């Protein structure tokens, strides 16, 4: 139980107040919690409740409730602490989204979210982001640079053939192949 108290204190220190409150409540509900620390923990919960918002979600139909993508429970009413600001509340059954809302909660406020039995279906997901006109330029520039290097290498080989006396390129190729352990006759055939 003391580990829960330490975790809640750490969450509170780093500003994750909604999670800290839930962990403090788990500590208070734990059979091994210290009764002497109960008043201090309850005071911390009261202070946190002034700084966070609360959602009281009434789905109106069977399904899982998710707040900001995290499962928050099932049932006739679900209570969740959240940080002040905008939050996505979603009702799902199996993999289907039955309804969704975005709600704005202020510090210290409790907001009731209802879906009803005939809740409007969730809006379709937004389209995928469009590619910008410059999104492929880095790749195209790399390909162009490699092609230029290849053309330079081909031009250099042709220039060496034109300047070198006949057979010199073939002899150089033969020497290279022999050092690599291949017969020199391959040089004559290749050249």
Structure, described:
With 191 residues, this protein is α+β, with helices and mostly antiparallel strands. The protein has 6 helices and 7 strands. The protein has helices at 2-13, 17-29, 38-51, 137-163, 168-179, 185-190, and strands at 53-58, 64-67, 70-73, 78-82, 85-93, 96-105, 110-114. Strands 3-2-5-6 form a 4-stranded antiparallel sheet, with no helix packed on it. β5 (85-93) and β6 (96-105) form a beta hairpin. The protein is elongated, with a radius of gyration of 35 Å. The chain starts with a helix and ends with a helix.
Give me the secondary-structure topology:
Layout (H helix, E strand, L loop, with lengths): L1 H12 L3 H13 L8 H14 L1 E6 L5 E4 L2 E4 L4 E5 L2 E9 L2 E10 L4 E5 L22 H27 L4 H12 L5 H6 L1
Helix pairs in contact: 1-2, 2-3
């Amino acid at each position: 139980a003391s580990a829960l108290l330490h975790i809640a204190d750490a969450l509170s220190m780093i500003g994750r107040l909604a999670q800290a409150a839930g962990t403090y409540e788990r500590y208070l509900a734990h059979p091994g919690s210290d009764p002497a620390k109960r008043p201090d923990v309850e005071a911390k919960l009261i202070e946190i409740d002034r700084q966070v918002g609360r959602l009281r979600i009434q789905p109106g139909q069977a399904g899982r409730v998710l707040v900001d993508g995290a499962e928050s429970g099932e049932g006739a009413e679900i209570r969740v602490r959240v940080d002040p600001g905008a939050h996505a509340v979603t009702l799902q059954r199996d993999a289907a989204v039955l309804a969704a809302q975005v709600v704005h909660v202020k510090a210290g406020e409790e907001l009731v979210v209802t879906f009803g039995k005939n809740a409007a279906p969730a809006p379709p997901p937004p389209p995928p982001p469009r590619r910008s006109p410059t999104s492929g330029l880095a790749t195209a520039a790399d390909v162009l640079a490699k092609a230029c290097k290849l053309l330079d290498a081909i031009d250099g080989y042709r220039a060496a053939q034109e300047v070198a006396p006949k057979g010199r390129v073939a002899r150089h190729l033969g020497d290279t192949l022999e050092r690599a352990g291949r017969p020199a006759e391959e040089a004559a055939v290749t050249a």
